[in-house]
Amino acid sequence: MAGVGDERLRRWRMVLGGEADGTGCVLSGADAGMDSVLGALYGGGGDGGGRKAAGERSGGLGGSAPKVARWLGDIRTYFPASVVQVMQRDAIQRLGLSALLLEPEMLEAVEPDVHLVGTLLSLNKAMPETTRETARAVVRKVVEQLEKRLAARTRATLTGALDRSARISRPRHADIDWDRTIRANLKNYLPEYRTVVPERLIGYGRASQSVKKEVILCIDQSGSMAASVVYASVFGAVLASMRSISTRLVVFDTAVVDLTDQLDDPVDVLFGTQLGGGTDINRALAYCQSRITRPADTVVVLISDLYEGGIRNEMLKRVAAMKGAGVEFVTLLALSDEGAPAYDREHAAALAELGAPAFACTPDLFPDVMAAALEKRPLPGPVGGS
Q: What is the pTM of this model?
């Protein structure tokens, strides 16, 4: 039983941290290394200059980029990537390490993820040239990971939706939508033969190379929307690669920037954004509205926490006008794995009354949301929103 007791003390020592924790347990080997890297971030001063207020823990990474880079390498030795990413985010927030992300040696040591990309983009304008290429390499690595995860399913889901939206009344046998055909002819059921006589065939045409739908992604680039900007840029590039969808990507704060010409490379799109600043949703929607040429074949996706700094009533009037013209309007409070952020509930409720309910959407659900919008079906969700 001594072994069980020793293991319990070891675990408590790892949880509590610090040699004066009362357990009397001395760590060695990998345990000591793990305790050291945890103490540097969550401990009481560690080895290098963290300040400790009364009753408050502080980290010990100091202000040295090489020291932080070594620490980033150490935590990858002891923890899986998912834990490493959490510790990196804690280090940036707790220790104010944003400025050190401008150092090439630190960026080369970091474990890339969506949140790190958001931090880099917020520092974009302050980034020295010596760091910019390293930062782009970090961002590209994350973008490629996201494309690998999301692109194939998005294309397959939306291609199916586009085919179904082009239903024809005299389809060839291979193009018959049997599920809808049977439901449409249930009144013609012959019980003696136990069959349905399909007087009316419903089918969908084969995919063509012509543009069938237009999609406008209108993205709020305020600081709280960083993860959403990253995911939306990746999805924008995927949509732009589909010849049957004409895709426009617009980002905004108090100004509006059209990044459609850069959609062939989502990294260029991301470095064209400027996270932070105010918000003028009305101005952004006015720009999007002016670019709509085929309302009945257009989907507008507004990705915003809806904190409007512009003219609220005008914003709502624009949404109502677009919907009245036949535009499918989708409002996403977030496009991220974290669910809905803080958002303006009054504006969300007003949009819902216009038939444009606002909800948060995970990246994995986004293809289904877009497919429903393209087919003019009820949207899946809301998930984590109003």
A: 0.69
